[in-house]
């Protein structure tokens, strides 16, 4: 019964404390952090990738990298954003790797949904284009855009996450949106 109490107690601990404990080698704290944040990482990766084909790999790579780098993480208060940044890099690497292939047959096609193959193909293409467009943004703009649009962070939360003034966040988001609109013009 004591392990159940410890497990229950860890569920009540906030993310920064779990990250510090995991950084010190506490596997249960890391497992709790993974259980808590994996759904967000998976949704976030799915939005960048455009298909579910690589989401499992990106999530696994994200948490493996996090486990390896947690001991060096100085500010654990932004662990959620830090994980999303890792996931972003892993997902964008996957998107770039897809575009390095010359043969279209190398791509795994998602199963068609109820809306038919045309809609499925269009949605998949739009998601790929979004991933490519995100990869063209400078890192600060991308991070702000992703936290706002995919992570639903407030401006204040983004400012705290990236340790920048609110005015800087507003500027970065404004430039990111303009760049994304330009890059995604074909999909308007």
Mean pLDDT over the full residue set: 80
Distance between the termini: 57 Å
Number of helices: 9
CATH topology of the largest domain: Rna Polymerase Sigma Factor, Chain: A
How many extended strands? Answer: 0
Shape: globular
Secondary-structure-based class equals mainly alpha
Q: Which oligomerization state do the chains in this entry correspond to?
A: single chain
Q: β content, as a range? A: under 5%
**Rg computed from alpha carbons, rounded to a whole number of angstroms:** 18 Å
* Unreliable residue runs: 101-107
Helix-strand topology string: HHHHHHHHH
Question: What is the CATH homology-level superfamily of the largest domain?
Answer: RNA polymerase sigma factor, region 2, helix turn helix motif
Biggest sheet, open or closed, and with what strands and sense? Answer: none
Task: Describe it.
- The N and C termini lie far apart (57 Å).
- With 188 residues, the chain is an all-alpha fold.
- Mean pLDDT is 80; it is low at 101-107.
- The chain has two domains: 13-99, Orthogonal Bundle (Rna Polymerase Sigma Factor, Chain: A); 137-188, Winged helix-like DNA-binding domain superfamily/Winged helix DNA-binding domain (Arc Repressor Mutant, subunit A, Orthogonal Bundle).
- It has nine helices and no strands.
Task: Give keywords.
mainly alpha, Rna Polymerase Sigma Factor, Chain: A, Arc Repressor Mutant, subunit A, 9 helices
Task: Indicate the topology.
Layout: H1 2-11, H2 15-23, H3 27-49, H4 55-69, H5 79-99, H6 117-136, H7 139-150, H8 155-162, H9 166-183
Helix pairs in contact: 2-3, 3-4, 3-5, 4-5, 5-6, 7-9, 8-9
